[in-house]
Design goal:
Layout lengths: L7 H10 L4 H7 L1 H8 L5 H12 L9 H7 L1 H8 L5 H9 L12 H7 L1 H8 L5 H9 L12 H7 L1 H8 L5 H12 L9 H7 L1 H8 L5 H9 L16 H14 L11 H10 L7 H7 L1 H8 L8 H9 L1 H4 L9 H7 L1 H8 L9 H9 L1 H4 L10 H16 L5 H9 L8 H8 L15 H9 L14 H7 L1 H8 L9 H10 L14 H10 L1 H8 L11 H9 L8 H7 L4 H5 L9 H9 L15 H7 L1 H8 L3 H4 L4 H15 L9 H7 L1 H8 L3 H4 L4 H8 L2 H4 L3 H10 L2 H10 L12 H8 L2 H6 L12 H7 L1 H8 L4 H8 L38 H13 L31 H8 L4 H8 L2 H4 L10 H7 L1 H8 L9 H9 L8 H7 L1 H8 L8 H15 L8 H14 L11 H7 L1 H12 L5 H9 L15 H7 L1 H6 L1 H4 L9 H9 L1 H4 L10 H4 L5 H10 L9 H8 L2 H5 L9 H7 L1 H8 ...
Length: about 1200
């Protein structure tokens, strides 16, 4: 092949990219055009042969230097002479979705060009490919900040070139405008932008960027001040505060269908930032509401109240919540910024501040009482607070009652059983109330002094066991403990001291629980239904509330019990003792019970010893660690604990492990069983915590042995020299001795022998590629995201289903120029969607935060490229831990349609988890269940991904056809079955948000620099239909009641520059009309532009900022041009130096005004004697310091002080000064 002959592959890549426009290439390269006209070549052949190497211009939307600055590896390759920028772009960059132009926003381009969006959706092109090849020449809108008509009118040379057909306006802007700081719209002022942003000016002076480049790259997303209309003439914050209703009304909506998909998703991803407590507002501001609306407050909807609260109510200063959030944020700014990892409380939403105040803040001991409306809560809870604390409850006591644990303990099940048929004031059945609603009802309108809130006499328990309670909680006075604490002690700790909770429980309640739970109890303990009536009351309460059953290892108890079995249990063998009998035995002990005698591991001791390590790994406090249950501690021991090398020796019955697991240990370590006896205790404990031990599932092995025929079992026993009794139960030691014998393995065929119900190795061999992609390849971002919400599992892989709640999420926001543009993430959408479903934004109790990593995998052995040899993939996958494989199997693997039941002993699960399966799925036999549902119940699967309500609504017809039932008869079990049997194969959506695919798209977008179209992964129509009122409500909060910079700009550009009068520190029309009445009369004809014989606000604004300004007329009393420009003044000398002129007459009044409110402020020159910024900074030091997140007011600049006074603090500071 000739040296300069293009390859077919190169031409194909150029063609497939859709970036290349032959016509434009020839227009930009006239020598090539001439050669083509002579028939010597074609545009694409020349580009492929020479253009790529010569970096020929093919589109003015592409800049080689910019591309290389964004792709360091490409730059290095170019510097080594290995390639060129264009060659890298077309042969590598496009395929790898490299960032091409940071100033181009894919989402905005598609929003502004629906026809292009349709082509992109059809796979015909990409957003940037269209823009680079044709859109830039067609003057397609690519940003709301670029005004085509203004650009041409403001740049006559460009307009001339456009008229001659030499370029297009948009093309010129991309090719030259950015570098030359050509203003993109009537508002942007490059000089002002640099003056208002000293850090940007420094970067420009250092040659790092230009004003315009910085603005598009960072300024827009950071809300940088960029125009003299904001600050000198209009302070953006003050303008938006005073005229939010006028600006916001432009985009107001009545229903979510009025919004497009992007707007809906933006609402969901922004979440609920502004706090409002509707119940509080109705009660406290009832008079104001009724006066405004003219109807009873009971007739008002939440939307009406919200509208009032954020408009009239806000202007009247009416509190929207019972907590003074602003005051709280000032007082505890350091704690808030530390917790959320932000620079200033200004970066936090009201909801975040509120959530912190009533959860983490209380945990830290921060006093909330000074910031709540005590009278409101005293009135609301009235009698219940008085019965708890007396008539004169303190503010601190009220806080503890409402937000802490001081309120009486309420048993939801019991309370609803007694009062479920009662109606609330708004006509709802008590039985239908949520937990939160029930508690409020029980302590307010439903409260009576003698009302039974739970079946327990907790006060009697408090009195009788005060010493035990004070010792356990380490307090001096038992009265300081809440009923909730007493309840938790009674159910979780009291039985260990031989305290019988049934003595403090209403007898009728015990019988109610016995009857209600009879069938489930019989299944759990494998007894006849009739036998439930004979069970001890303590066992009934244990089933309802938990207790000893969550601690006892029943097999361990049987094998280590040293008492008289016959006398105690009436059986001859310990293995004939039932679980129910063991539980009754434990509860009937009248002395302290050592839990170490009930389980081979001292979980409590382990938790106490390693509390700090556990707290660090699980992101809990030490006190919270001590509240974890045994299952959660076990999960830590055999995962994070093992990874950290935390010794288990002191907390495990070493001799029991040594003797019981001898056969397994010898096989695992490759030594004889006799040699096991000589291993040190540390070696035994270390093995017990290892993955080899976790691979041994004793119950599964027992199941395998018991599944053999009597003849097969007899043969194995004989080979081991053991007596065989077909009716006898097998000890754990005997199970392992048999399982690891050659005789057993021969019977079950050694190749199929497994130590665990999960065939992890078989799964790995069968699905190497899928595992590789997830942990090392294109889905690695998804594995990282999923690891943050990893399911907590027991040592055998079963998921822990105990309730766990999480600490308020700590978020870190990227601030300043050095950061990247903030993008909406899938988690913002998903979290808001979850909030919509649950109606909750935070929880008080804190349990395991399952976000920590498993064993870190070394991925250096492979380079994640598009194609990797299978043996290299296998080598990488072999590094994965058992836990990582299991997590993939029952998570991402299931969603990929891999039938995991092929690698799980499903019959064993049906047998072992029968009681739970029957109760959980509401079936009469486990044989009714598809294998995948059985596996899902034990290990997890689609049930954790499936939104049952969504699936039921979206696929109602399919469900009814499949099962022959009406939609009301379709249970969640049938929905899950359908999802497995039909949904996966048919690629049906499991929820309105496809989180996995969104994560992958978001990760890819971070590489390309393009935005993600969330609508591709979210069922917007469903969200709009289901949550219409919530979406509209939140849209109004974010876009009508609290307008953005973009909305304000749109408002100004559309002719709304003047919406009223006093909207700026720099302009006061009342002052102006009074001060310059004669001048206005004299210039009336000039000012009255529309000749209607009247001067309107817009005409007056134009005069003030135009002719009047150039005549030196002060636009407000805060501006004193005469003194500021006095040649002998320091401010005038500074003006001359700044503009590099010799005479003050050479400085216009507009320039003076711009200098005044930017550079001049920081230099310490007050615009007039009425404005003393040093005094403002001193008087309002506390709130200004808190707002900017500074450690002292000295760190706050004078410019920041001014911006605060006439922005966020305008109502309290600026308005008073300007008055």
């Amino acid at each position: 092949m000739a040296e300069n002959e293009p390859t077919t592959q190169t031409i194909e890549k150029i063609t497939e990219s859709k970036f290349f426009n032959p016509t434009r290439y020839l227009d930009l390269n006239l020598d090539v055009k001439a050669a083509v006209e002579r028939g010597e070549t074609t545009a694409i052949e020349h580009f492929a042969t020479f253009g790529l190497q010569e970096n020929r211009r093919f589109s003015l939307a592409f800049d080689s230097e910019l591309y290389l600055s964004l792709n360091i590896d490409a730059k290095a390759a170019v510097e080594r002479g290995e390639t060129t920028a264009l060659e890298h772009l077309f042969l590598v960059g496009i395929e790898q979705n490299r960032i091409i132009n940071p100033y181009f926003d894919t989402t905005i381009y598609l929003e502004l060009n629906p026809d292009v969006a349709a082509s992109v959706a059809a796979g015909e092109t990409t957003a940037f490919a269209h823009f680079a090849s044709t859109g830039i020449q067609e003057n397609r809108s690519f940003s709301r900040f670029f005004d085509l008509e203004f650009y041409l009118s403001d740049n006559s040379d460009v307009a001339t070139a456009v008229d001659r057909g030499e370029t297009a306006a948009t093309e010129h802007f991309f090719a030259f405008g950015f570098q030359e700081d050509r203003e993109p719209n009537a508002l942007f002022d490059a000089t002002y932008y640099l003056n208002a942003n000293p850090d940007v000016r420094e970067a420009v002076e250092n040659g790092e960027t230009t004003a315009l480049q910085h603005y598009f790259d960072f300024g827009i997303s950071e809300n940088r001040s960029f125009t003299h209309y904001f600050s000198a003439f209009l302070d953006r914050s003050a303008f938006q505060t005073l005229f939010e209703s006028e600006v916001g009304t432009v985009g107001d909506v009545e229903q979510s269908s009025d919004l497009d998909s992007a707007q809906v998703l933006n609402v969901l991803s922004s979440g609920f930032d502004r706090a409002i407590d509707f119940d509080y507002y109705r009660i406290v501001h009832a008079a104001a509401l009724e006066s405004f609306f003219g109807i009873s407050v009971s007739e008002l909807s939440n939307n009406q109240i919200q509208t009032y609260a954020f408009t009239e109510g806000s202007r009247a200063g009416l509190a929207r919540t019972s907590i003074d959030l602003q005051g709280y944020s000032v007082q505890y700014s350091s704690q808030l910024t530390s917790f959320y990892q932000v620079e200033s409380t200004a970066d936090l939403s009201e909801v975040q501040i509120r959530d912190f105040a009533v959860s983490e803040g209380l945990s830290l001991g921060l006093d909330l009482s000074a910031f709540i409306d005590v009278d409101y809560y005293r009135s609301l809870y009235g009698r219940s607070i008085a019965d708890t604390f007396g008539e004169n409850a303190t503010s601190a006591e009220i806080v503890d009652f409402v937000f802490g644990n001081a309120a009486p303990y309420i048993d939801e099940t019991y309370f609803k059983a007694l009062n479920g048929q009662n109606l609330t004031a708004d006509g709802r059945l008590v039985a239908d109330l949520s937990r939160e609603e029930l508690v409020t009802y029980a302590l307010t309108e439903g409260y009576e002094s003698d009302l039974q809130l739970s079946p327990f006499d907790l006060e009697a328990y408090r009195v009788q066991f005060s010493s035990q309670l004070t010792t356990f909680y380490e307090v001096s006075n038992v009265a300081s403990l809440s009923q909730q604490q007493i309840f938790e002690f009674a159910t979780n700790e009291g039985w260990k001291l031989g305290i019988d909770l049934s003595n403090f429980t209403d007898a009728m309640a015990i019988e109610f629980f016995r009857e209600t739970n009879a069938a489930a109890i019989a299944r759990r303990y494998q007894i006849d239904l009739s036998a439930v009536s004979e069970l001890d009351a303590a066992v009934i309460l244990d089933f309802q509330y938990g207790g000893a059953s969550q601690t006892v290892d029943f097999n361990y108890f049987r094998e280590t019990f040293s008492g008289d079995i016959s006398a105690t249990f009436g059986v001859t063998s310990a293995f004939d003792i039932s679980d129910a009998q063991i539980l009754e035995y434990v509860y009937t002990q009248n002395t302290e019970i050592q839990t170490f005698n009930l389980t081979p591991i001292d979980f409590r001791g382990y938790a106490r010893r390693y509390a700090s390590q556990i707290a660090t790994e699980l992101d809990l406090s030490v006190s919270e660690v001590l509240q974890l249950d045994n299952a959660q501690i076990e999960a830590f021991i055999f995962s994070d604990g093992a990874r950290l090398g935390l010794s288990l020796q002191e907390f495990v019955n070493v001799e029991y492990v040594r003797s019981t697991y001898s056969a397994a240990i010898s096989t695992s370590l490759g030594i004889s069983q006799s040699a096991v006896a000589n291993l040190g205790d540390a070696d035994i404990a270390s093995w017990f915590a290892s993955s080899d031990a976790r691979d041994v599932d004793v119950e599964f092995l027992r199941y395998q042995i018991e599944s053999l025929t009597v003849g097969q079992q007899a043969k194995i026993f004989a080979s081991l020299g053991l007596d065989f009794d077909a009716t006898a139960s097998l000890s754990t030691e005997l199970v392992l001795q048999i399982a690891f014998s050659s005789a057993f393995q021969e019977v079950v065929e050694a190749d199929n022998f497994s130590l665990s119900a999960i065939d992890v190795e078989g799964y790995v061999r069968a699905h190497v590629s899928e595992l590789y992609e997830f942990y090392f390849g294109s889905e690695v971002s998804l594995s990282v995201e999923r690891s943050k919400k990893k399911t907590r599992r027991t040592a055998r892989g079963s998921r822990i289903t105990a309730k766990t709640t999480k600490r308020t999420k700590r978020t870190k926001r990227t601030l300043g120029t050095k950061g990247k543009k903030t993008k909406r993430t899938f988690k913002d959408v998903a979290d808001t969607f979850r909030t919509l479903k649950t109606g909750k934004t935070t929880k008080k109790t804190v349990k395991v935060k399952t976000t920590k990593k498993t064993k870190k995998t070394d991925v250096s052995v492979v380079t994640p490229t598009v194609e990797v040899e299978i043996d290299v993939q296998f080598e990488a996958v072999q590094q994965l831990t058992r836990e990582q494989v299991v997590e993939f199997m029952f998570g991402r693997g299931v969603k990929l349609g891999i039938d995991v039941s092929e690698f799980v002993q499903v019959d064993f699960l049906r047998n072992s988890f029968e009681a739970g399966l029957l109760q959980g799925y509401g079936v009469s036999s486990t044989l009714e269940l598809d294998d995948r549902l059985v596996v899902d119940f034990v290990y997890g699967g689609l049930s954790s991904e499936l939104d049952f309500s969504f699936y039921r609504e979206q696929y109602a017809s399919e469900l009814q056809a499949e099962f022959g039932l009406s939609i009301d008869q379709i249970t969640d079990t049938l929905i899950l079955e359908h999802a497995y049997t039909v949904g996966l194969e048919s690629d049906l959506a499991l929820s309105p948000i496809d989180s996995d695919e969104l994560v992958l798209a978001q990760s890819n977008a971070e590489v390309t620099g393009e935005s993600v179209d969330l609508s591709e992964f979210v069922d917007v129509d469903y969200l709009q239909q289901t949550y219409d009122s919530e979406i509209v409500s939140e849209y109004r909060v974010g876009n009508v009641y609290n307008v953005s910079q973009q909305q304000t700009i749109d408002f100004l550009e559309s002719g709304g520059q003047i919406a009223g009068v006093n909207y700026s520190a720099a302009i006061d029309t009342d002052f102006y009309l009074e001060t310059y009445a004669e001048e206005i009369d004299a210039d009336f004809a000039v000012i009255d532009a529309n000749a209607d014989d009247a001067i309107d606000e817009i005409e007056l604004f134009d005069y003030i900022t135009g002719a009047g300004l150039e005549q030196g007329q002060n636009p407000s009393k805060l501006v004193d041009f005469e003194s500021y420009r006095d040649p002998d003044s320091a401010s005038a000398q500074a003006l001359l130096a700044f503009y590099n002129v010799e005479s003050i007459e050479e400085v216009s009044f507009r320039q003076t005004l711009e200098y005044m409110f930017t550079v001049g402020l920081e230099a310490g020159f007050a615009p007039s004697s009425d404005l003393d910024l040093e005094a403002i900074r001193t008087e309002f030091a506390t709130e200004i310091t808190a707002f900017f997140g500074a450690s002292s007011v000295s760190e706050v600049t004078l410019t920041q002080t001014f911006n605060y006074a006439f922005g966020e603090g305008f109502d309290r500071i600026g308005s008073q000064i300007a008055a």
